[in-house]
Every structure is written in C-alpha cells, then in structure tokens.
Amino acid sequence: MKALGSSKICAVIAATDAKAMHKQLSKALRLTRMAELRLDWLLDDAQIKIFLRHLAVTRPRATLIATCRRKRAGGKYGGTIAGQLAHLAEAIQAGCEWYDLEIETVRERSQELLDALLRPGRRLTSAHFFQRPPVDLTAVAAELAGGRSDAIKIAARCNSLTESRKLLEFAETRQNIVAVPMGDVALPTRFLALRRKNQFAYAPVENSTAPGQVSLDEMKQIYRADEFGARTGVYGVIGNPIAHSLSPGMQNAGFFARRMNAVCLPFLTRDLRDFVDSVEPLGIKGFSVTLPHKEGILRFLHRCDPLAERIGAVNTVVVQSGGRLHGYNTDYVGVLQTLERRIRLRGSRVLIMGAGGAARAVAYALAQAGTAVFVSARRMRRAKRLALAVGGEAVERAALRHTAFDVIVNATPVGMHPSVGSSPLKAGELNCKLVFDIIYRPQSTKLLEIAARRGIQTVSGVEMFVAQGAAQWKIWTGHRAPVSAMRRAVLRMLSNERNSRAPGRIAGGRP
C-alpha cells in the first residue's frame, strides 16, 4: 500500500516509558523506514506527552503511524475518548503522518469532530477480531471505509490457513486495505501477504502487541521479508509444535548463500488437511515435515520414494504441477553421514530408543548399513513391529542395564526444548561406547550430559539435522546445498538461544 509508505515491514514500538519507546524507535529506523507508535502501551498520559514532545524535536524521516487503542478495542489505553483523540492530535503535530483509529471510537464520535481534531493526519480505520474472522468481510470493509478513511485495516485471529487465505484474498480485490491474519496458525500468511503489492507486516522491536507477530530482527535477518515479491519461492516446515524448529533459519541461510529469491516459513499444523488444501493456493513449492506428521502425511501423497515408503515416514515433500505431492525421507541420509564418521557400522550393535517416524528412519538406515539393530520403546508392541521390519530385535527396558551396545541412539522427543531437563534413559542404562541424540535443540541434551559424565563419546543431533536439511534443500532446488552456511546458521541460532537464557539475561521472542 503506497499510501502507507514504501516499506514492507512496519516496526511496532511498544513500551511502558518514553525512554524505552525512543530507544526502540531508534533501533527500528536502522532496519526499516516505517513504524507504528503504540502510545497506549505507555504507562500514563504523562509518559505519552513526554514521548511526543521528544518526537516533535527529533522528527525522524520515516512513515509513522500513531496508535492509542482503547482497552475495549483490544489496546491498553484506559483513558477517555477525548484523551485518546487529544494524544493522536498531538502525535500528528509531532510528525506522525498517519493515525490508526479503531472502529469503536469512530462509531462514538461524529466525522466532523474527528476531522477537526485530527486534520491533517491521514486515517487508517481499523477493526480487530480477536476470536475469529467476521462472517461478512464486505460489510466490515464498507463500514470502515465509510468514515472518510484514507485506508482501512482488518485484523482477525485466523484459526486455520483456510481462514487466513480468505482474509488475504478479500484484501487483494480491494484498494487501500491492510489485511492482518492473527494467531500462531496464521503466522506464515503474514509473510505471504507481502508478495502482494502494497502490503506490509507489523513486526515488534521488543514487545508483541498481537498474536502471531514475528520480531523485527527475525523479519530482517532470518526471513528477509523486505525483499518479498510475487516471484519469491515459498517453502515451509510443518509440525505441532513448530516454534522450536530451526529449519526456517537453516534453509533460509542456504537460499541467501546461493542468492535465491526464496523463503522457508514455519507452519504450525494441527490439521494436515487444512495445510494440504492450502499448498497450491499459497504457492508452496516444497516443505519439510516434523513431529507429529511424518507418518500422517503419507496419506496425502501422490507419489512416495520407495525407501521412504518402506520406512513408513516422510520428512521431505516436493510440490509438483497441479499440487501433486511427492514424498521423500532424508533423515536416513542424516543418520548415515553422522555415524559413519565415527564408527564402522557393519557388524556394530546399535540400540534405538523409540519406534516412531524418526526411529524408523534410523532403523532402516542402520539395517541397510549392516548394523545389528535393537529397538526399545515405551510401547513395546511398536518396538517389536519395527524390529521385525528391519530384521532386528526388540529389547525390554528392564534388560538395558545388563545389555551392552556399541551405540545408543535416542530417536524420541524426550529432552527436546522446552522439556530440557528430561532424559529417555538413566545413567545405569548407558552401557555403550557412543550416545547419539537426534534432538538438536538443545545442542547438549540431558541424555548427552549424563553420557559425558560417564566418559561415553557423545554426538549431538545438530550434525544429523544439518545433513538431512541439506539433502532436503537439494531435493527442493535441484542444486547442491551450501552446507557450511547452513551449519553456521544453526550453530549461531543455538548460541544466541543459550546466551538469551544465561543467568541475568531475559529470554524473549519466538524459535
């Protein structure tokens, strides 16, 4: 929307005191030239006045939108409408070209009064729906546009990709309308909206002001959202939960290293059908699959690689013409590349903890390499089925203290962020030379710490994660993956995460 500025990213400035607001604004304007000033987040009227007085002096060269949303409209301002309008008028005088005025206030004051108080500011009239999208978008848009608005905004929590698509498609057919899908499921569609001309996305500098927002740093550094366009290739990673995944950061580092106009986005997927039905409309070219969908995705595939079909789990999908889905499994590659560097697989005794999709990939990889495979799991029936499928042997948990192996592989999610204090095995059950945990977040799991204290060699899941991700990248693009760049990105993200949780630091944001 040219009327609201040329940037695709609108930084959200929200803090409780004027000093913090100015600090956020200074940081934001180093990354984008557009910002929303959430005056309603400031502690009281006095802090608002202090902030605006300073703004009037500095007058940054940027497109600024002043917002002072009242509590009844989902904001934090507890004062009167008169106070709200006075602050917006002051913001316009201080250099804000635009102001966001919610429909609740528009309904309660005459257009003549609003025009008199807020001229020459340009009005973005907004409506927010925090439970679900409105049934009649046309009626909402008509009401918003009827108040002498220069532009309108409809922000709605979307509980499915289907709802998100409808909101974006509605906005695409009209001029001067900002569509904002809210919520964790809708998060990737905030990015996809940027492929459309004149749309932008809100990105908080520090404090999220709506569900499903992505921080300004992530928008710029991980997703390069300001470079999005109609030709940007879209890939994704699906799972539930998905916030822990470092796949987008890793794959995007690969795209950046190869100078490709493409992006990988996280899709929180509770309903596989909803995602699959959205693949073609959203222009998704390929996606990776993580827990709990590695097995469930099989029923939606049009073709499956024979090895992945034998494993019974898929972690990589390519979208062919007509939306046809072709499935592969690259976990297999990751397992072999990781372990072959450390041990001679043929003839080795390897215990796999777990019998789910990831465990199946590990088991088939090791069996093909000539390893003696043993399987133990909480559900022994599944362990026995997997062991039988690969010519291995199921082992009861009680027998582990008295059985020796060359390698133990954890293929369960136990110990994965955020449950980092858990381990699938106890110290006395680690009778082996090497422990390999396929979990990569955290890099050093509780299981690996226990093994290291016993003097056992350990291998982090980071190596397998990068190897399987590079194989995915090649399948998607047809080009050799920039493995070093992808590994550096993963290690950097893990390091940043550790630092954010160090004593005296406050962790924030999303994974």
Write the layout of secondary structure elements.
Elements: E1 9-13, H1 18-28, E2 34-38, H2 45-58, E3 63-67, H3 81-93, E4 98-102, H4 103-108, H5 111-118, E5 122-129, H6 137-145, E6 151-157, H7 161-172, E7 177-182, H8 187-192, E8 201-204, H9 216-221, E9 233-239, H10 247-257, E10 262-268, H11 272-279, E11 284-289, E12 303-304, H12 306-311, E13 316-320, E14 324-328, H13 331-340, E15 349-353, H14 357-368, E16 372-376, H15 380-389, E17 393-394, E18 407-410, E19 434-437, H16 446-453, E20 457-459, H17 461-477, H18 483-500
Helix pairs in contact: 1-2, 2-3, 10-17, 10-18, 13-14, 13-17, 17-18
Describe this structure in words.
The protein is of the alpha/beta class and about 500 residues long. The protein folds into 3 domains: about 1-210, Alpha-Beta Barrel (TIM Barrel); about 235-330 and about 465-500, Rossmann fold (3-Layer(aba) Sandwich); about 340-460, 3-Layer(aba) Sandwich (Rossmann fold). Helix content is about 35%, strand content about 20%. The protein is built from 18 helices and 20 strands. The strands form 3 sheets. An 8-stranded parallel sheet has the order 7-6-5-4-3-2-1-8. Helix 6 (about 135-145) links the parallel strand 5 and strand 6. Helix 1 (about 20-30) packs parallel to helix 2 and helix 10 crosses helix 17 (about 460-475). The longest helix has 18 residues, at about 485-500. The relative contact order is 0.08. Mean pLDDT is about 95; it is low at about 505-510.
